[in-house]
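Hi D.,

Good news: the full-assembly prediction came through. Inputs first.
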Amino acid sequence: GQQLNQSPQSMFIQEGEDVSMNCTSSSIFNTWLWYKQDPGEGPVLLIALYKAGELTSNGRLTAQFGITRKDSFLNISASIPSDVGIYFCAGQSFTGTASKLTFGTGTRLQVTL
Amino acid sequence: DGGITQSPKYLFRKEGQNVTLSCEQNLNHDAMYWYRQDPGQGLRLIYYSQIVNDFQKGDIAEGYSVSREKKESFPLTVTSAQKNPTAFYLCASSIDATQGNQPQHFGDGTRLSIL
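Then the structure:
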């Protein structure tokens, strides 16, 4: 099965810095989702994007659905220690009978004080 | 509290043994999904079910089986035919798989290891 190209794979940043990560695909998606996963737990939904060009914020998080419907980015402003974790993008496609997610390989974020 | 409950949290399997992972949701969601996660990789779809008594193979269904006898339950059996079962298994659900814009919500996972 396909996996999305997500970058960077990992990043170390200092507390207070802004973070940016993105996902690209060769396929078009109807919806882009961004999840955060803490160690030993399931992914938690952060932001859902439903329309090409859409820019959505959730607190310090901002995400955009690319105009071509083949990419998305996530920005985190003023990072704090609890932002540590793995961030996954996911593209959602609808086949007419079922909705399926294709996941990126994840961006591991580590924050230094 | 409403949510998705996976059990057990940790599971060990002997060679040649079948094991079953439980997933229960009280969100009244129609659709349920099983994913496998390996270190450094994203999630890969094993099976999904849009409605009771119906399920479909995902991208990596070989060596796995599922059932959907009740709306709230979607157990996954890892059979002896799955030669590399060690992984983190995640269950998810969404309101309705026939609606394209319904995000999936996840349980906390079961970590399966081989003895």
